[in-house]
Design brief:
Elements (H helix, E strand, L loop, with lengths): L3 H9 L3 H14 L4 H13 L3 H14 L4 H13 L3 H14 L4 H10 L7 H12 L4 H15 L4 H14 L4 H16 L14 E7 L5 H8 L5 E3 L5 H10 E2 L2 E2 L7 H15 L8 E4 L8 H7 L4 E6 L2 H9 L14 H21 L5 E4 H6 L1 H11 L46 H7 L8
Parallel strand pairs: 1-5, 1-6, 2-5, 6-7
Antiparallel strand pairs: 3-4
Length: 443
């Protein structure tokens, strides 16, 4: 009989199809075990059976009515599905059980308009000002308090980022070292000839900085009847590094053979097949694909890569005012660090522009939202897809959105977010100064 650990391992490997029946059998044996029910809900979610996942969370809530966790998990799924009103109701109920939980307040602020006099806000402000709010709650609450209060709440946002930075420091030097070593390995020539690739599959990689518009582009493309969305899988970089990175160093591509390259493609395709119904044509919005996109195109020549670029001040401001999960985007809590990471990404894009310019196209967010149709047509033409007007209405796309953009992409395409950094230019001076000439194309 499969244990909780066995099922969790399958889920981590992306094998929801195998994990789900095992979780169902486990719940039949242990129907009142909250851990088993929680795991079942996660399996249903991973398998795309969202209503059954929500029903499982309801069972959990009934089993433990005084626990905020199941309410928060249900709310998170509802947010991903774009069902903001019931998500808000679940989060407010959770906050009634745990009023000073900063994480719950941050979740609520992602999809609900909070005001300074909202009781859930004022209670946490009082605890913050008295110094009785624990550091972990301050980290999460700081982002929410800024959203609720606005400019006068910038100090809360700044302190939250400082606390997060101390908790999870990020090193530009280490990241630069990795990129330089990777570029050296990729510059080695000649590359082995690729194998047969993955006939009949159309992966469309969407990449760029977080908050640059990659989610919008994925939503647009997955409105096409021939394209499904897989979200951020993380597979492109993992598949490439599984062969390139050996013994703490990158192997020169020229020293690999055709079988090595085929293994990268095989690991990617096998990995993507674990995701819920990827289909023949699919988007993969893994942020760090830009690191290896030229190599992936060499191995999977039918693949297409779209790099989304946006004014780095808007990107940086959006990153700085949002919280990212521990272990991801470690640079996101420091203004200078955000600028440093943006420079690293631009360097990698320039590298591929020189070495393999045929492997990707670039789309400017501003052009896309100001005049969508020409840019959408260009992307579809590049992907070999016929025109479909549904791609101009991504807000009607019902696919789950697993990013911080879950609320924004439920609205029609609009240029209203352009230049949002200007209102906080004074507060963002460290980031703007560190960006330097990177802002020139947008000035």
């Amino acid at each position: 009989m499969a244990t909780l650990e066995d099922i969790q391992k399958l889920l981590k490997q992306g094998q929801a199809g195998k994990a789900l029946p095992l979780a169902q059998a486990l719940v039949r044996r242990r129907g009142r075990d909250p851990h088993a029910l929680n795991l079942l809900a996660r399996c249903f979610t991973a398998a795309g059976q969202h209503r059954k996942a929500l029903a499982s969370y309801d069972r959990l809530i009934k089993l433990a009515p005084k626990a905020p966790g199941p309410l928060a998990d249900k709310a998170h799924l509802l947010q991903l599905l774009g069902e903001m009103a019931p998500a808000e109701a679940a989060l407010r109920k959770a906050l009634s059980l745990q009023p000073l939980n900063g994480s719950l307040l941050r979740m609520l602020s992602l999809s609900s308009k909070l005001s300074p006099d909202d009781p859930v806000v004022s209670r946490i402000v009082e605890a913050w000002d008295k110094g009785t709010l624990p550091a972990e709650d301050r980290i999460h609450a700081g982002y929410a308090l800024f959203k609720a209060i606005g400019r006068e709440g910038f100090a809360y946002l700044s302190e939250a980022n400082q606390l997060q930075q101390r908790k999870a420091p990020w090193s530009e030097a280490e990241r630069r070292k990795e990129v330089i070593a990777l570029q050296t390995a990729l510059r080695s020539a000649p590359w082995p000839e690729p194998g047969p690739g993955a006939a009949g599959r159309l992966p469309i990689f969407v990449t760029g900085m977080p908050r640059s518009g990659t989610t919008l582009v994925e939503q647009i493309l997955s409105c096409h009847p021939q394209i499904n969305s897989t979200g951020e899988t993380g597979l492109p970089l993992r598949a490439a590094y599984s062969v390139l990175a050996k013994g703490g160093a990158f192997q020169p591509v020229s020293g690999l053979n055709q079988g090595d390259l085929a293994l990268i493609g095989q690991r990617y395709v096998e990995g993507i097949d674990h995701f819920h119904d990827p289909g023949v044509g699919f988007t993969d919005k893994s942020i760090q694909t830009y690191m290896v996109m030229g190599l992936l195109h060499h191995i999977l020549p039918q693949a297409r890569t779209i790099v989304v670029r946006r004014d780095p001040r808007d990107v940086g401001w959006s990153i700085y005012r949002n919280h990212f999960a521990d272990g991801t985007h470690g640079y996101s809590s420091g203004q200078v660090e955000i600028a440093q990471m943006h420079a690293i990404m631009e360097d990698m894009i320039a590298f591929w522009r020189e070495l393999r310019p045929e492997s990707f196209i670039e789309v400017r967010y501003e052009d896309l939202v100001r005049d969508p149709e020409p840019e959408v047509r260009r992307m579809l033409d590049y992907c070999g897809l016929d025109w479909d007007p549904a791609c101009l209405e991504p807000e009607k796309n019902t696919a789950m959105v697993r990013t911080l953009s879950a609320d924004q992409v439920r609205s029609p395409i609009s240029p209203k977010a352009i230049g949002g950094w200007r209102a906080y230019a004074e507060e963002l001076a460290p980031m703007i100064d560190a960006l330097g000439d990177l802002t020139a194309p947008w000035d």
